[in-house]
């Protein structure tokens, strides 16, 4: 049970949805067949910012098809959502199947502020996943293209992503190059 005074999940977006609607899709470099776009992702589908009500629309079910999500209470979700929203540097974007009322795909653009490159911004795409039953509908392509264009619109000097070797060819379609740098990490817990 949520304590009194706690926010309840609602449809308030993480970021202004107009920024997605106003992207110049003519700058997109990837082909779609059949044609889809952020404004028309397919029959019964809507591409939009994450909102807290998505905790009840299968957001974690989709995200769990990519990686371990753990057990997250609605309170934890809302607290993290509000933190991300306040920062203004997170663009968690989802595709909702409005016929089912379920999230079927998601991806995140994180903006990193740098002192280098004259205090520029770097974009980073993370957590791109499409639910198993919706794969083949070009939704991963749509999310990646949309967030790539969004990073350009937000004046990032570059955008990066990390992927498994088997996914390299997919991301090359969007103009991403394999870096000579090594990706290294330390994991502190699952």
Provide a quick synopsis of the model:
It contains 6 helices and 5 strands; from the N terminus they run H-E-H-H-E-E-H-E-H-E-H. The chain is α+β, with helices and mostly antiparallel strands.
Description of the molecule:
The chain is an alpha+beta fold and 190 residues long. Helix content is 25%, strand content 22%. It has six helices and five strands. It has helices at 18-21, 59-63, 74-87, 116-119, 139-153, 168-172; strands spanning 45-49, 90-97, 102-113, 121-130, 156-161. Helix 5 (139-153) links the parallel strand 4 (121-130) and strand 5 (156-161). The chain is globular, with a radius of gyration of 17 Å.
Supply the number of helical segments. Answer: 6
User: Helix-strand pattern, N to C?
Assistant: HEHHEEHEHEH
Give the strand tally. Answer: 5
Distance between the termini: 27 Å
Low-confidence stretches: 1-5
Mean pLDDT equals 93
Helix content range of the residues, please? 10-25%
Strand order of the largest sheet: 1-2-3-4-5
What is the overall silhouette? globular
The major β-sheet equals: 5 strands, mixed
Tell me the structural class. alpha+beta
Percentage of β-strand residues: 15-25%
Compute the CA-based radius of gyration.
Answer: 17 Å
